[in-house]
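User: Could you go from structure to sequence for me? I need the amino acid at each position, not a summary. Structure tokens:
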């Protein structure tokens, strides 16, 4: 991450007043190497989730760059974007928002492989990942509302692990 900044335009307080600006991220620099774990600590509203959206390519930074393997995520071209989308996965702060309530867990787990067009033995991969997070395979037929918060979080982690990411971003996964 190089010199990353983000400013949000807030709503006007008065009809003709200029829109107030909120500088959420201010010239952030850091790098993560293979095998490294990096913790980011900050008070509520300090911009941790905002940074996560940029690290996963969901939101484009106003200034600065997010690089994967030394290449800018936004200007690196289609092949690199595809590699990046597969390699960087996220576990969201609220697991319920990352799982479709109408979809069986098994279908939700397969979804990343479908959308990323990853080939291979998907059924075997699902069982492998489920085992990694310590859930039984009968979870596959059930719906999100049938799980506890902690179990659901493990499903969200399993979903993030499905494509075999190189980088796993966890936005307060135990909150
Ligand atoms: N799209 C947006 N437009 C305007 N302001 C935003 C937008 N997204 C986030 N903010 C503001 O940016 C600030 C940072 O929010 P963010 O969610 O990144 O904080 P956080 O560090 O993850 O907090 P928490 O620990 O509570 O999860 C907050 O003040 C929030 O209100
Ligand atoms: Mg947050």
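Assistant: Here is the amino acid at each position, in order:
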């Amino acid at each position: 991450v190089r010199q990353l900044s983000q400013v949000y335009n807030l709503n006007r307080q008065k009809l003709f007043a200029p829109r107030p600006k909120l500088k959420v991220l201010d010239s952030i620099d850091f790098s993560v190497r293979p095998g490294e774990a990096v913790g980011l600590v900050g008070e509520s509203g300090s911009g941790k989730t905002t940074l996560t959206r940029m690290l996963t390519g969901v939101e484009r930074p106003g200034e600065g760059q997010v690089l994967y393997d030394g290449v800018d995520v936004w200007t690196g071209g289609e092949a690199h974007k595809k590699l990046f989308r597969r390699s960087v996965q996220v576990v969201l702060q609220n697991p319920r928002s990352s799982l479709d309530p109408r979809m069986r867990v098994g279908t939700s787990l397969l979804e990343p492989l479908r959308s990323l067009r990853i080939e291979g033995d998907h059924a075997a991969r699902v069982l492998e990942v489920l085992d990694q997070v310590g859930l039984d395979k009968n979870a596959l037929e059930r719906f999100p509302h049938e799980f506890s918060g902690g179990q659901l979080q493990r499903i969200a982690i399993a979903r993030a692990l499905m494509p075999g990411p190189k980088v796993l971003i966890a936005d307060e996964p135990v909150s």
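One structural detail worth keeping in mind: The mean pLDDT is 92.
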